[in-house]
Amino acid sequence: MKKKIAVVLTLLMSMALLAGCGQSNEPSEEEEPPEEVYPISINGIEVRVGETTVQTLLDGGYKVTVSEMDSNNHITEYEIDPEEQLEAMSYYSGASVWITDSTFAHISMATTIPAKMGDAVIARLEFYMGGEPEEWGIVSLNGVPVNEINQDKGHEMFPDFSIYDYYMVKYGKDYNYSFNFSQQNDLLNHFSVEKEYDVDWNGDGQ
């Protein structure tokens, strides 16, 4: 009887050891935290690329326009129709939004499901600051007016960006940032924020 009990105990211990060996000793990989999205403010309207819809700009009183050139090199500019139905999983570019008479941004939009153009998500913004720097304060980046961001301030705000003369860049997993500084006044005068989408490309905005 004692021999039978010893055999049973030995079998139980062997099973426990096998079960333990089947479990990985390596710690489970934690999910990478989402990339930080640096918000842009246009006259108090917050825009988060990859999250904010085109309708947000339209509701703020800004016109989103598309320009077309005919065979005679005549350019016609028209406003987008926010009710126009867009296909799913598509990327639309070629539109612009004027911030002031001299400052504008190129805008791209993306859809993951069939949606109206107004409900498409802003996928990219590329700003061109024009006129006097005093006017640039209407646009803020991560809470700081653009006309207060020189190279030193940019390095302080975004220490993980790659730094070059008059240029900063970051290519992340989902987001890309590109900053250009004026050689005349050292201020940020051209920058873009973009979220990458795995969608079909449609370059003409149609």
List keywords for this structure.
206 residues, alpha+beta, 10-stranded mixed beta sheet, 4-stranded antiparallel beta sheet, 3 helices, 16 strands, 37% strand, disordered N terminus
Helix-strand layout with pairing:
Elements: H1 2-22, E1 40-42, E2 45-47, H2 54-59, E3 64-69, E4 75-79, E5 85-86, E6 90-98, E7 104-111, E8 115-116, E9 121-128, E10 139-141, E11 144-145, H3 151-157, E12 162-164, E13 167-171, E14 175-181, E15 188-195, E16 200-202
A few lines on this structure:
The protein has three helices and 16 strands.
Architecture overview:
By secondary structure, this protein is α+β, with helices and mostly antiparallel strands. It contains three helices and 16 strands. The strands form three sheets. Strands 3, 4, 6, 7, 9, 12, 13, 14, 15 and 16 form a ten-stranded mixed sheet that branches. A hairpin with a 5-residue loop joins strand 3 and strand 4. The chain is globular and about 45 Å long. The N terminus is likely disordered.
User: C-alpha Rg, in Å?
Assistant: 26 Å
Helix proportion of residues, in percent? 10-25%
Low-confidence stretches: 1-18
The counted number of beta strands is 16
Structural classification: alpha+beta
Give the oligomeric state of the chains in this entry, treating copies of one chain as homo and distinct chains as hetero. single chain
- Kindly estimate the percentage of residues that lie in beta strands according to DSSP: 35-45%
Cα(first) to Cα(last) distance is: 85 Å
Total helices: the number is 3
Q: What is the typical, i.e. mean, pLDDT?
A: 87
Order of helices and strands: HEEHEEEEEEEEEHEEEEE
Overall geometry comes to globular
Largest sheet: 10 strands, mixed
